[in-house]
Amino acid sequence: MTSDRAPHTASREDPKLAELLGGRAGAVDASIPVVAFVLAWVVAGAAGSAFPINWGAGAAIVAGAAVAGWRLYRGRRPRAVLFGLAGVVVAAGIALVTGRASDFFLVQIVSNVGSALAWAISIVVRWPLLGVVVGGLLGQRTRWRRDPDLLRGYQRASWAWVAQYVLRLSVFLPLWAADQVVLLGVARTVLSPVLVGLSVLVSWPLLRTALPADHPGIRHPR
């Protein structure tokens, strides 16, 4: 009887990964400067401006600053907020230097390549990044690594994040090569939040099914 109750008790004690990881909110916030860039670029171009990229870059930076101010007001960590704003400024700067509007998305593309590699390597070297993130949020530091079941579960669930970065790249790279600025904006705005949300949702069953029935849950590494 005890073993039958264990999975239910563990699942009640376990926090939801969506609550820990933040779900799609961060991805939505990050999409706002992208929308501002594309809209300003399109409107300025349609109005006959000789420098539509300048308008797009300016709109993106203003939108990024507004999002950063809102994040700080909501209590987000200043360093994370500044990193987000810096990414927008760098992206805008690259587009201004190259004169190619689609290059605004280069920072995002390079970031996705780096993230896919980092998550894949972390799995191979047995330091899955999902475990690092969730373990840190739960105050476990590295204790989860001494639990073979949890380690295996975090490795399995981390592949969902590798897959979503690879999927993003399979969409972004052809559009960037074809200089499809509007479609890049649409893909970045729609695809990224959806994939982040799906990764969060898929991570939990992948992690939980790797644990034996009597495992006490992610809060309690064995």
TrEMBL record:
<keyword id="KW-1133">Transmembrane helix</keyword>
<feature type="transmembrane region" description="Helical">
    <location>
        <begin position="53"/>
        <end position="73"/>
    </location>
</feature>
<keyword id="KW-0472">Membrane</keyword>
<protein>
    <recommendedName>
        <fullName>DUF3159 domain-containing protein</fullName>
    </recommendedName>
</protein>
<feature type="transmembrane region" description="Helical">
    <location>
        <begin position="117"/>
        <end position="138"/>
    </location>
</feature>
<keyword id="KW-0812">Transmembrane</keyword>
<feature type="transmembrane region" description="Helical">
    <location>
        <begin position="159"/>
        <end position="178"/>
    </location>
</feature>
<dbReference type="Pfam" id="PF11361">
    <property type="entry name" value="DUF3159"/>
</dbReference>
<feature type="transmembrane region" description="Helical">
    <location>
        <begin position="190"/>
        <end position="207"/>
    </location>
</feature>
<dbReference type="InterPro" id="IPR016566">
    <property type="entry name" value="UCP010219"/>
</dbReference>
<feature type="transmembrane region" description="Helical">
    <location>
        <begin position="80"/>
        <end position="97"/>
    </location>
</feature>
<feature type="transmembrane region" description="Helical">
    <location>
        <begin position="21"/>
        <end position="47"/>
    </location>
</feature>
